[in-house]
Amino acid sequence: MMKKHLSKIKLINWMYFVNTTIVSNGNTIITGMNASGKSTIVDAIQLALIADKRKVKFNNAADAEGKRDVKSYVRGEINTEEISCLRPGDVVSHIALEFLSDNGPVVMGIVIELNNGIDEMHFYKANNVRIGDQFYLDEENKPNDFSGLKNTYEKFHVEFESLSAVDYRRALAAQMGVEEKYYDKYIALLIASIGFKSVSKVDDFI
To answer: If DSSP codes are grouped into helix, strand and coil, which group holds residue 129?
Structure first.
C-alpha cells in the first residue's frame, strides 16, 4: 500500500498566525497553554479538509461557548477595549496542506479573499511541489491573492489546478486514499471526533 501522510500545514492571516508553517512527521500532537491556538489550527485543518464553511464546527475543539466563523478567523477578531480585530480592511488568508507519498509531494489549499466584508474561497491543487514562502508572498512580503498565487506557481513551472469545491474534495479523497463515495462519511466522522466535553471530575472520567 502506498504510504501517504500530511507533512506540513501552512497558515497565513488565520487568527494569530500571520505566517506559520507547521511540520508534521508521522503522528503529531498539538500541545499548548489555554488560548495558545490549538483549536485555531484544528479549525484551519477542518476547513481545508471539509471545504464547506457551513459544515465546519469552528472552535468545537476548545469546548468553548464563543462563536467563530471564517471572517472572524481571517480578520483576527479579538474584541478588546483597544481594537476589535488584528486585520481590518481587505485581507487575504491561506490554508495549505502538504501531503507526501511515493508519487511525490502534493499541496492542497484554500485562499480566502475578504473584500468589502464578503469572503470568497478559492481551491487549488499543486503537484510535485512542497510548501514554501516563495509561492505565498509577493515581493513586498504581502500574501498573494489567488491570482498572484497561481501566477507564481506557474512562474516556477509547477502544475497548478484551480478547482471547484466539489472537485477539490474529490482530489482530497484521492490524495488521502479514501474512496470518493465514502468521503462525506469520513468527514462526518472527522467532525464528530473533534468536539469534546471537558471532564472536571475524576469520577466522571472513570
So the answer is: coil
State the Cα–Cα distance between residues 109 and 97, nearest whole angstrom.
6
pLDDT for 159 beyond 90? yes
Residues 6+ apart with CB under 8 A from 183: 169, 170, 172, 173
Give the pLDDT confidence score for residue 203 in this predicted structure.
58
pLDDT at 2 over 70: no
Q: Per-residue confidence at 195, pLDDT binned at 50, 70, 90?
A: low
CA–CA gap between residue 117 and residue 198 (Å, rounded): 35
Query: Can you tell me the distance from the alpha carbon of 110 to that of 70, in angstroms, rounded to the nearest whole number?
Result: 12
Question: CA angle at residue 173 from 27 to 108, to 5 degrees?
Answer: 75
Grid coordinates representing 201 are 471530575
